[in-house]
Amino acid sequence: MSKKDLAQLKYQKVKDYVLSHIERQEFSKDDRIPSESEFSKLLDVSSITVRKALTDLVNEGVIYRIRGKGSFVASQTVASEKTSNLVAFVISGIEMYDSSYLQIMRGVQSFLGKHGCKLIIEFVENDFEQERQLILNLIQTELRGLLIYSSDPNAAKSYLGEIRKKSIPFVMLDRSPSGYPVNVVTCNNHDGAYEAVEYMIRQGHERIGFAAYDFHLTPEVERYNGYCNAMSNASLPTPKELLFPERELDYAALSRRIQDGELTALFCANDKRALEVLEQLAVRGIQIPEQLSLMGFDDFESSKFARVALSTVKQYFEVLGYESAKLLFEITVGSSYGNKKVMLPTSLVIRDTVKPL
């Protein structure tokens, strides 16, 4: 017998044990069944095999799981609640800039479609109170779970507690509240920024600035930290006059620093800021990359078609959506325990806005 056939037999052994005990009424509605470790010892099977069998029984509505308590035989009502196939995705406080958010939605739909889930997407434009009210309304309905792309994750603490009271699984995308543990999927912002700044340093640049866009968001803070660490490890200073944390950037002052040689390269916290810098400096007669090397972060589709093709850090938006939906699904079937922060890799994309000094 092959290893695959043997594994299938052991998997079926676990399922048959549960189903036969329910049929003989040795397990009644809402009774707790053995834990994974108990099943492993009882039936001499691996914990991985047990977990797979129990996950399938959850999906079939035979049992349900309560985090920290175990697995239980599902009553008809509980089974109905646990097998709701509706997932809500709330996208708040962002512009539909380029195709990145469409890619995220495509990734979410790609995973959920494989698992028989329906997706509803709710957009909120730059209005946190509307975001909060929408979330509070949604959790009154029957949902399998929530995906949240918040405009202000720290303010979102005001409704995250209410979601937890309702025991509705949720995953945050891209950004999360500081000091408040949640399930979140994001990219490796720190290392992506570090790699970008390190590349510019290798090109001979020492006077490298940092320009934020929404500096209250955790991804931009992490990118700033990556910038600082790359500079520090190269024994390079980060003087205050080369840091631009505000949304409104003083382009006249920026142009003067470039012309005076105080600034030779600029790392921007996202492509939107970098593309704006590219246009504004062109109006003021600053040539890129001859007078300033420029680097972004995100790799929007339009970045390659900019006035000067933008060098940037690529994050994989479709994978972000897919992995967020996957993590939400794992939470709802009880195969994920504790809060997880999933970090996705980035890659450096070198085009025409960076040149050796």
What key phrases describe this protein's structure?
357 residues; alpha/beta; 6-stranded parallel sheet; 12 helices; 14 strands; 43% helix; elongated
What does this protein look like?
The protein is of the alpha/beta class. The chain contains 12 helices and 14 strands. Strands 4-3-5-6-7-13 form a 6-stranded parallel beta sheet, sandwiched between helices. Strands 9-8-10-11 form a 4-stranded parallel beta sheet. The longest helix is centred in the first third of the chain and has 21 residues, at 3-23. The model is unreliable at 76-82 (pLDDT under 50).
Summarize the topology.
Layout: H1 3-23, H2 36-43, H3 47-59, E1 63-66, E2 70-73, H4 76-82, E3 86-92, H5 100-114, E4 118-124, H6 128-138, E5 145-149, H7 157-165, E6 170-173, E7 184-187, H8 189-202, E8 208-211, H9 218-233, E9 243-244, H10 251-259, E10 265-268, H11 271-283, E11 293-295, E12 312-315, H12 317-332, E13 341-344, E14 346-349
Parallel strand pairs: 3-4, 3-5, 5-6, 6-7, 7-13, 8-9, 8-10, 10-11
Antiparallel strand pairs: 1-2, 12-14
Query: How would the global form be characterised?
Result: elongated
Largest sheet: 6 strands, parallel
Count of strand segments = 14
Percent strand:
15-25%
SSE run:
HHHEEHEHEHEHEEHEHEHEHEEHEE
* Helix content class: 40-55%
